[in-house]
Every structure is written in structure tokens, then in C-alpha cells.
Amino acid sequence: MPSLKRHCEVGHRLFGDEIIGKPVHRYLDSPQDLSLLGPHHRVLTHTWDRLEGIRETYGLQGYAEALLHLALDYDLIKIW
User: pTM score, two decimals?
Assistant: First the structure.
């Protein structure tokens, strides 16, 4: 599971904007959920409802950042 910093770096490389990316990645990997559940936090935070909330709040760019986040967490794409 990549760190918050790594999620933000990859998002910045792809989308060029950390202003939206950082809050999106923090929302998906909230420190409270991580400290209690570790990698199992995904059951609570990596959901369609949360993705929809991100899209409504941050628009398509935020939604793209969230999908990138999930792809990195589940090793669907490799970090270069």
C-alpha cells in the first residue's frame, strides 16, 4: 500500500494538481481508519459511496484521483 506522499506524487505527475489530490487521498486513507484497521481500512473507505461523494465534491478530477488511488492500492498499476 503506497503512502499518502506516494499517492500524491503519482497523482501530481498524472494530473498536475495537488490541491485536489491531497484531500482526496487523505479522505480515502484517513489516519483514524488506518491506525485502527491497517490495510483492512479499505473495506470502510474504498467504497462506491465514498467515490460518489468525492465526485460530487471535487468533480471529475477528484474522481480520477480516487480511481488512481484505488488502482495503486490494489496493484492494478505499477508505480514508476
Answer: 0.83
